[in-house]
Write a structure and sequence with these properties.
The protein has 197 residues and is an alpha+beta fold. The protein has helices at residues 2-7, 22-33, 52-60, 66-71, 84-94, 97-107, 112-136, 149-155, 190-193, and strands spanning 44-49, 74-81, 140-144, 161-170. It has one domain (2-173): NADH Oxidase (3-Layer(aba) Sandwich), CATH 3.40.109. 46% of the residues lie in helices and 15% in strands. It has a four-stranded antiparallel beta sheet, with helices on both faces. The structure holds flavin mononucleotide.
Length: 197
């Protein structure tokens, strides 16, 4: 696992000729389906975009990530509910009473922005799960906050959800200068960020 974390990296250049096997994409979907969330709230939706036309439209509204989106195999868009009423209807229907009551007691009284931040945290947790899954399956990935949210939402015809972050997945161009053997990992000193008590 540690070796896997050393070898995974944010891919900056993709080989457009290499396609991800259908079964791997299906496995990644199943993995996202099983991602954990607070009270099992699942306030998310994920798009797997491999359609070239839509992918190219997304590429145009992806700031400095344009080339990655064009040349990757699939763009996975991570979305969160923007309609809290619909979210509440969903959890009322699907969650055990105890979990729904937790929401009513501790989350619902918060200001709207904080409820949305709480939901977004769950989606970012799914992002972490997804990046590790990609590493495990030897799929190269680029998490991207550098996307134009409003334009992503328009292209994907979103009403009840809004995009938060996207991940380009595919296979690296062998010349990608960001590979760990060419650009060693840069992290804060471990003693600074981990305190053992
Ligand atoms: C939420 C999130 C958003 C990111 N957005 C971008 C992005 O838009 N474009 C990009 O090239 N890298 C992006 N990154 C990659 C980070 O810069 C990268 O993970 C960090 O520098 C550590 O490098 P490593 O992933 O290669 O270990 C993002 C990473 C995360 C977790």
């Amino acid at each position: 696992m540690l070796q896997m974390m050393k070898e995974r990296y944010t891919t900056k250049k993709y080989d457009a000729s290499k396609k991800i096997n259908f079964n791997i994409i299906e496995e990644l979907k199943q993995i996202l389906h099983l991602a954990p969330s607070s009270i099992n709230s699942q306030p998310w939706k994920f798009h797997f975009v491999s359609d070239e036309k839509i992918k190219n439209e997304l590429a145009k509204v992806s700031y400095f990530n344009t080339e990655k989106v064009i040349n990757c195999d699939t763009v996975v868009v991570f979305n969160v509910y923007n309609d809290i009423t619909l979210f509440e209807e969903q959890i009322k229907k699907h969650l055990p009473e105890g979990a729904f009551n937790y929401y009513l007691t501790y989350i619902k009284p918060l200001p709207e922005a904080e409820i949305k931040a709480w939901m977004s945290k769950q989606v970012y947790l799914a992002l972490g799960v997804f990046l590790i899954a990609c590493a495990q399956l030897q799929i190269d990935a680029t998490p991207m906050e550098g996307i134009e949210i409003d334009k992503y939402d328009a292209i994907l015809n979103q009403e009840s959800y809004t995009a938060l972050v996207a991940v380009a997945i595919g296979y690296r161009d062998q010349e990608d200068a960001n590979q760990p053997d060419r650009k060693p990992k840069s992290r804060l000193p471990i003693d600074q960020i981990i305190e053992t008590i």
